[in-house]
From TrEMBL:
Segments forming domain Lipopolysaccharide assembly protein A: 46-96
Membrane found in the keyword field: yes
A Pfam family reported for this protein in Swiss-Prot or TrEMBL: LapA_dom
Keywords: Cell membrane, Coiled coil, Membrane, Transmembrane, Transmembrane helix
Name of protein: LapA family protein
Amino acid sequence: MMRYIRYAFLAALGIVLVSVSLANFALVELKLMPDELAGLLGFNFSVSLPLFLVVLGGVAAGLVIGFIWEWLREHKHRRQADVKKREVRQLEREVNKLKKKQNEGKDEVLALLDEAG
């Protein structure tokens, strides 16, 4: 059921994006700097693109920047999780070693029951 809702949402989003793209097909000129600053520096870069590409490109760039920012921000938490995983593995090995040492010389069946319980 959730899968169909997700597909319906994605289809509606696709229809909206296509209609917005078709409605905003006019060319706009993007400039690297304002004309006054470009006159002082002696160079300027400009490109003509359809308006929908500018808008959707801005949204996509914002998403990518946000994902990268969040990934960098969460680095500390991922590192802590890795340290804790290593500690757990080390403690599990130590517990298994102590169980084996405790069960040395015992009957194998009793040793298995001790390990299980």
